[in-house]
Design goal:
Its cofactor is FAD. Residues 5-334 form the FAD/NAD(P)-binding domain. Belongs to the class-I pyridine nucleotide-disulfide oxidoreductase family. By secondary structure, this protein is α/β, with parallel strands linked by helices. The chain is built from twelve helices and 21 strands. The strands form five sheets. It has a five-stranded mixed barrel. The model has no long low-confidence stretch (mean pLDDT 97).
């Protein structure tokens, strides 16, 4: 007789563990299957994000920025630090402590919400049967009224740079260096490549980023992307666009990389090479042939707007399905599915999902870019104001970047918000709230913003869409 649950969630990452907790809160007997074992050789919840992604990378980004500030910025504030030293081992231990605290917190939440944590892997079979293979013990057959697939994603491999997690590493290996590489190569100038490249550049690496695409951050608003390229280049990231890696050859302590760039073949030797060319859905072993779940040609699970698969009672969320591979998107999908199971009509607003790159300055966006709106042919207006015009940014020594709005000229509705600058990850939420509530740009123009604050740049950018900005000179665009 198979063990039976109301809900079985396969995957304990941000989407999966949140879905499991929400289902349990709604009164369902819920189990969550997760196979991850952490570097301490202990079972761990939290998926890629908490263990080897979002959280540890942010810990290193923050630690490395403090080192960078001490080395380059504190003196102008009148703060002397004497001889600066770097204890990378302590920095890594702090990162690991943060990870353990958060993953342990999820385990405690499971306990308090009475979610059964099944440590091992799960495979969906026909008729919502789940084959559970424990980390320790015999296989078990489980069944449920509802199954939520939340297996996440893994880094994309490329044949020309085979990862060994020693000399050539993926995003996981790039978090575990025991010394600062003198020369570091990064394949891919996307979110992961830029963030990890920034960490090691701040700590002293000479970093070269090789990006096959000719446009820097092609999905980001072009005005923001161009300005970000300038700022990151000034920080020491040597970014080569249109550079396609054609081969690698590893030596004992280095790797020789060949790549085509600007019509010529080039060759360079690095101490370490990070492969950061994107992520793909992790579907290996997830579905039996008779499971009935449809996938597309790229192995994404096909779902409707509320994450239902073709099999009644089976849902898929997060990196397994369409849309950006973002932890917060997975989390909200997990909550939505739990509510749908309970008979509610919750819907994620996919038009208002923010994106963030945690470089310094940060890059953040929500909604449509100017290019997308322009291509639609609909009349629009924009307003952009630099942080150099903001008193709080100047006082903090953070004058780089800008805030930009894209607005429907007919309805005055906010279509998109784009930020390059200090605390962009926090400021972007003002745009998310505005879009979620269908705000007009006039609503933002009429609000009172605290002074001095970084948010005043949001206010000025809103005003700038109608040539009302106070603290920057504006020239009316020609009709």
């Amino acid at each position: 007789m198979a063990d039976k649950y109301d809900v079985i969630v396969i995957g304990g990452g941000p989407g999966g563990y949140v879905a499991a907790i929400r289902c349990a809160q709604l009164g369902y007997n819920t189990a969550c299957i997760e196979k991850r074992v952490n570097k301490q050789d202990q079972p761990a919840l939290g998926g890629t994000c908490l263990n080897v992604g979002c959280i540890p990378s942010k810990a290193l980004l923050d630690s490395s920025w403090k080192y960078h500030e001490a080395e380059h910025a504190l003196a102008e504030h009148g703060v002397g630090v004497g001889k600066l030293t770097l204890d990378l081992d302590t920095m890594q231990q702090r990162k690991d402590k943060v990870v353990q605290q958060l993953t342990g917190g999820v385990a405690s939440l499971f306990k308090s919400n009475k979610v059964t944590w099944l440590q091992g892997s799960g495979q969906l079979k026909a008729n919502k049967q789940v084959q559970f293979s424990p980390l320790d013990g015999d296989e078990q057959s489980l069944e449920a009224e509802h199954v939520i697939l939340a297996a996440g994603s893994v880094p994309v491999d490329i044949p020309v740079a085979e990862v060994d997690q020693k000399i050539i590493v993926d995003s996981t290996g790039a978090l575990e260096f025991d010394s600062v590489p003198k020369k570091l190569g990064v394949i891919g100038a996307g979110i992961i490549g830029l963030e990890l490249g920034s960490v090691w550049a701040r700590l002293g690496s000479e970093v070269k980023v090789l990006e096959a695409v000719d446009t820097f951050l092609p999905t980001v608003d072009r005005q923001i992307g161009k300005e970000a390229f300038k700022l990151f280049s000034k920080q020491g990231l040597d970014i080569h666009l249109g550079a396609r890696v054609t081969g690698t050859k590893k030596n004992k302590n280095s790797v020789r990389v060949t790549y085509s760039y600007d019509g010529e073949e080039h060759e360079e030797t690095f101490d370490r090479l990070i492969v950061a060319v994107g992520r793909r859905p992790y579907t290996e072993g997830l579905l039996s042939q008779d499971a009935g779940v449809t996938m597309d040609e790229r192995n994404y699970v096909y779902v409707d707007s509320q994450c239902r698969t073709d099999v009644p009672g089976v849902y898929a969320i997060g990196d397994l399905v369409r849309g950006p591979a973002l932890a917060h998107k997975a989390i909200e999908e997990g909550v939505m599915v739990a509510d749908v199971i309970a008979g509610e009509h919750t819907q994620v607003n996919y038009d208002a999902v923010p994106g963030v790159i945690y470089t310094h300055p940060e890059v953040a966006w929500v909604g449509k870019t100017e290019e997308e709106v322009k291509d639609s042919g609909e009349p629009y207006k924009t307003g952009a104001v630099p942080f150099a015009a903001n008193g709080r940014a100047l006082a903090a020594g953070e004058p780089g970047g800008l805030v930009k709005f894209v607005v429907d000229e007919k309805t005055d509705r906010v279509l998109g918000m784009h930020i390059l600058g200090p605390q962009a990850s926090e400021l972007i939420q003002q745009g998310v709230v505005a879009m979620e509530f269908g705000a007009s740009i006039e609503d933002l123009q009429l609000m009172v913003f605290g002074h001095p604050s970084l948010s005043e740049t949001v206010h000025e950018a809103a005003l700038a869409t109608d040539y009302k900005a106070i603290h920057v000179a504006q020239r009316r665009r020609k009709k």
